[in-house]
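Proteins fold reproducibly. Next comes a concrete instance:

***
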Amino acid sequence: MLNFDVTIIGSGLAGLSTALKIAETKKVAIISKRQLIDSSSQWAQGGIASAIPEGSLEGHVHDTLISGAGLCDEDVVRFVSEKSAKTIEWLISMGVDFTKNEQNNDLHFTKEGGHSIRRIAHVADSTGRAVQSTLIQKVSTHPNITIFEDHIAVDLITSEKLNAKQFKNNTCLGLYVLNNTTGKVDTIKSDTTILASGGASKVYLYTTNPDVSTGDGIAMAWRAGCKVANLEFVQFHPTCLYHPQEKSFLISEALRGEGAVLKLPNNKPFMHMHDARGDLAPRDVVARAIDYEMKKRGIECVYLDITHRSKNFIIEHFPTIYERCLKLNIDITKEQIPVVPAAHYTCGGVMANMQGQTNIENLFAIGEVAYTGLHGANRLASNSLLECLVFSEVVASQISKNNPSHLIQLPNWDESRVTDADEEVLITHTWNELRRFMWNYVGIVRTNKRLLRAMHRIHMLKKEVHDFYRNFKISNNLIELRNLLQVAELIIYSALERKESRGLHFSKDYPQLDEKPMVTILDPTNLDINQYNQEKGQKYAS
């Protein structure tokens, strides 16, 4: 049994920054499914929203609340915005070289959809990569940090699962982790466990996210007894590159912040017909507008045009996008960029309070895996990296003050009654089927009929995968599929519970807004989703 003070599941910005802030006093383990560099944070292009520009605090709070469509927790929004300047300063102290203004060498701020002013600090158009590379260098050489690459968390170990009566409340005691290289499952005793595992956008056929975004933390937390909230709000980024050789390359919103215009194939702009803010409307508005135009006109994509800016400006501000497109024979200084919406960000997640604590003792959640109340029904652009940084500081401080510890001997993983899988074609086929019907039935525009169809298929697939999981040795692909099915079920259930259209959730059956919007909270301790599925399925069949 391995033993750590703190185990962090995930190697994105949330996980790495927390590790660095807590490793001075704690023995820390970082669990990374692949290499440290393989996270959604690495792919973030835009930047980090901040209240650094003079007089911009109230504006940042206001813009976040407006984008959140009435479901943000204003106290959390204000808290995060107030901490934003400090987070930028911390990154600079770590060695992140933000883009500067040529005139005075101050930070250069860009603007994205939903923002009323320029307030986004960035490193050209590859902020995530720059930040991740800097922090990876730091954690890789820290004496108190042990890194487990090519390892995937299987499940959390809790006092309730072990029937450990000495704990008054359900408490996280550690976790099981699969070594993808050896196939062995290790037991990790951990006084504190932190979920920093990212979102679940790989549940959809088209996504801007890397392959690791399979909702592992949300699914594990749910199985352990954590409440989840607002999982119906899946943000679809309006502009993912549409090209047969590129299915997940994001075209940053910062292009529209610098004047890029969305156009139809006939070269006519269209966003002004959908929203007064035009191309700089919030992401949910822009994604629905593109989806509407594509379906109305039977077109496969729309186009993003920034050719009116100078070649030098484009290459200087968007070098990554320029080079990536040029490799595909698209010169964005002369040609429009074909784009489509794609699943991008999970706005809901595991419920965590202002200290990052879940309803299970000694289990914290930060970053995209968590629901803190910051994002509401739609995330404001470039608030995601900011959330990771602010809550990493909060969680590190909380753990340092509390010093939790336990001496429970955890049981080893038992695979004495399972065999090697004779074939894994079930996993591949089920994964493909799941992602396709989630895209078709639980996408940008929803109906109850579509949602119930999807839930019926989820119920059947979950049983098949459960039987497979119970009888055969586990693998990385099986763990991810099991988690995706669980999160998909929670997304569908949450969507059925919301009887209105708000933010990222648009239902043709309930197009109106409720006067008193509520957060959708699911509690596994008093909710039998399987029974709910059967009842809804029977109702639908009749």
Remarks:
- The two ends are 52 Å apart (CA to CA).
- The first strand starts at residue 2 and ends at 9.
- The chain has a mean pLDDT of 92.
- Residues 274 and 289 are 6 Å apart (CA to CA).
